[in-house]
Write a structure and sequence with these properties.
heterodimer; A: about 300 residues; mainly alpha; 2 domains; two-stranded antiparallel ribbon; 13 helices; about 25% helix; elongated; B: about 675 residues; mainly beta; 30-stranded antiparallel β-sheet; 3 helices; globular
Amino acid sequence: MFALLAASAIVWADEPGNGFVGGEACKTCHADIWFTFYKNPHFRSIASGKEKPENTGCESCHGPAKAHVAAHGGKATIVAFSVLRPEAVLKACLRCHGATISRANIRRSPHTQNNVACNNCHSIHKPQTPKFLLARTESELCYGCHANVRAEFSMTFKHRVNEGFMTCSDCHNPHGAFPSTWRMAERPRMVDTALANEEPCLRCHTDKRGPFVYEHPPVRVEGCEVCHYPHGSTNSRLLRRPVVFTMCLECHNGAPPFGLHGTGDPMLSQTHNMTDPRFQNCTNCHVRIHGSNSDSLFMR
Amino acid sequence: MRNKLQLLGLTTFLLAGAAGRAQQVVAPTPEAVGTPRGSTWDDYNVLNSFETGYRFESVGGNEDEYRSSVNFGNGVRLLGGSLSLNSKDGHGDLFDQAVLSVLGLGGDPYEAATSRIEKNGWYQYDMLWRQNDYFDPGLVTDGASGGHLLDTTYGSQDHDLTLLPGSWAEFFLGYSHDSQTGAGISTAPAFDSTSVFPVFANVRRLRNEYHVGNQVRVHGLTINWTHGWQDFKDDTGTELNTTVAAIPATGADLNGFLGLQPTHGTSPYWRVGLLYDRHYFNINGRFTYTAGQQAYVLDETALGADRFGAAANRQVVSFGGGQRPVATGNLTVTLLPTDHLTIVNATSTYDVRTEGNSAYTQINDGSQTADFVFFEYLGILTVSNQTDVDYRARHWLGFFGGYDFSQRRIRSVEEALSPANVPTLYDQTNRLNAGRFGIRLNGFKALTFTAEGEIGRNSLPFAPKSDGSYHALTGRLRYKLRKLDLMAWSNADYNVNAVALTAYSAHARTYAASASWSPAFWFGLDASYSKLHLDTIGGIAYFVGPLSVQGQQSYYVSNIHSGNLGARFELRKLASLYLGYSIVQDTGDGRADPTSTSVGPSLPAFQTAQTFPLRFQSPIARLSVRLAEKVRLNVGYQYYGYREDFFRAQGFRAQTGYTSLLWSF
């Protein structure tokens, strides 16, 4: 019942000037929020003094409060986000926050499809972080639903998210991302892109970006994930296999139609005697495996 | 009102505690100190707290492994800190809000600082600075020694200034800087195809990026453009002034080596975003063009003896460059015909052309050879279209689905070894059709359930490990109350690539469950468990001596169990105690020793690579005592234990901890 009433109240923006009483009326009962609201980025709508009533302070989000005041409170007489359905929350927030390119894909994002609305992660009145008004630290928020990702960041080798050095949004856009341009654009989703719609890995690992005279094609075509786990791994350098040569051999088996030529990724030459330890660590010789300017075999 | 203020303080305190429940490192202390109301300075409210202390560590076992996975050291640290100033009326003289937070300053391997300063409607400045001590011992996890090492410092900083934020016309200025400097050991081939030598490397990499931009909002249309320049240079050089033997020993020696390969590049780019949002529809797009290029020179001199003991020297000179223009486009149309239905269609294109030229000269003793490579080309053109439909039939029932189509064309030119050779052009086109469907249930207020399936067919996967014929099933169940949050999640992702000569298949199954329970302000419990199963099998071909071995399969299995447990106790607001434990254990495929199975190739090297059981565990304890209203004393201890079942020499045991004062003033 609350949800239905609150959802119907979300249409206040279509009726400007109807039932707005101003934020001063709110502080009578909601003093705890009112007296610290100047720390909130939304306070600027009050500070400017130029916004219309439907865009000012408390009523810009919670709608006209006349009926709420007259009823001495109650969630049925005002837009209470705690009882709003996710789509109504999204609609309310996008009134102001919709005109941002970084949130352009929020309606089609997996979060929206899975009923994760703005107030699942953001706390407007009790934020833990002054920037972005997050309800908890970013990694905690993400781990709350993605326990498998938490497990990956607990592994021996990982990007330093738990240490506070990195955050999930360094690589992901939780509001939905444009389709990726590596692999076949279908997966992964919600991964933000770097300079030229590239993988976000290249923001920091710029030496892998190239362009190289000799690209290692899977890096450019399939992306870093073809060899690495981006979150964490039990293998050093976040590799998908504990031993390098097995990872290389699984592609370089000469079986068509794989590879650039369609004739299979090149097999090892006859000099590579796999009983000899020197050939079991491929990158000992192929040091520039991500791409080389001077050697088509990535040896310098 | 006083009660409500107390409630606010208590809630903040609890939330701070909650933030620490799954804290994986012992410091900094997540507990809050001081009053959340802060103090008044001029017309600003000031809130700050800084934690200073001593961090200690003691490591037994393989310290290289410790440094590459944990890496905390000894010394005095500014473990964490935060400062915020807020104008009380939103009309400060120079700024209305200033926020600064720092982490690990003074020697921690992970140091960071972030700040924001803004004046409403005039400007907003954001800064992020990070520095990471990156150590890579070149480990090869089967216990063999690797040839590479990196002991470097990686630093990055981003500065972004927005003028007239929130107005119809905003302007952006930005600068980013990354660097990686330090020592390394690399490897260099010399004299013949089988001799590889360790050489010292002086790592010096630098990236600068500058950008300007503007965003205009007119009649509901948002236009955002950015023009930027990214410059990159890698002046890493390799050098050797002493005699070393080849690795592994072949009889060849390297007496002196100098390898310089400066590489400098620049990538000017344009990025334009469009957004038009109305009640019933939304159109947005993003278009980029990046004109990247990179030039290099290689000058390499090697002096020594070949594997037969004869004096040898060699000089290699190579120079050239690569260009990579990239054009991308995204256009998304969203229709919302009713409150129950959302239809989204997204089209994207990606066009990259990597071109390069290189002149290569190699001079050997007694003979001279010269090879030239005049042209290399790799072009990728991907066009994809995705349609998503989200239908909310009832408030408790929803359906969503989608269809993806992608077409990728890859063209390449290779092997133009001399001007007389005609380069060979390779051309291939790959198409992917994928569909998704899901259902969403909100049967009860606290219970949500989502199930989703995806199936895809790829006409010409690029590599055996690429998505070929795949399907994925995902389910999520969540029960969330104010004090209790239970979640279960399951995912199965199967991929098969089978062709005439070989087959590759990967089965990944992940199960995860978590629980968070805060029955009272003085107690909170947080637990999670995940099992990540992966088994892959893929065809391989290799040589044993001169004999070609084909038709065999590489086999890999991991069964990783991961658990986290944390309990927080508050003792009359005077002290808080946190106890936690995390463990990651790969049980492998259950074998007792690395070569005790007969699956796959019989060579020991292949057998030992099939599974990799290990255990990594870390119990943690932290006590935080309130000494005064604005001062807390903290002590903490965290143990890290790492053990590889088959290669014990790489294990370590580390005792780490800290003691600190958390001070608000």
